[in-house]
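User: My instructor asked us to take a sequence, write out its structure as tokens, and then describe one feature of it. I'm not sure where to start. Here is the sequence I was given:
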Amino acid sequence: MWEMDYDKAANVWIERDKGIVAMENDALKERIEKFIQGHNTCALATANADMVRNTPIEYMFFDGAFYLLSEGGLKYKCLKDNKKVGIAIFESFSGFGKLKGLQVEGEAYMIEPFSEEYLKAIEVKKIPVEGMKRLPMPLNLIKVVPKAYDYLESELKNEGFGGRQHLDL
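Assistant: Let's start with the prediction itself. The structure tokens for your sequence are:
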């Protein structure tokens, strides 16, 4: 009877990445942040012992963090118990030679409504403060501080680098 070897499957990319040419960290971080700034929607993955959610959501990225405004939803059941999150941002698939995407491991924090950091985020989003204050309840602001990036870009191979790059922050 067949049994899945989860450890072997989990290590495929770790083994493959051992032989790649890595970009210098500052250049890689700059490239990743340019990719992040070129998009505005991600998939936010949250989980706890009972459930997993993967929420498509708009984001802002500034001061090295992702900021996500949200009314509510089941992702908050997960965030209550587990602050570790994943974010995925990617281009539509158009062929193996044109892959481009980013996986982010991070930690989520809830930002107090109308605090200095909250006000900065709604300013970046160009939302009038007075309009926010008239809402029946303030929008929740989730801040995700990235801990690690896994960046995939097929075209990096044309520059002499591995197509998959990892960056710990």
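For the description part of your assignment, you could build on this observation: The first strand starts at residue 41 and ends at 47. Try explaining in your own words what that tells you about the chain.
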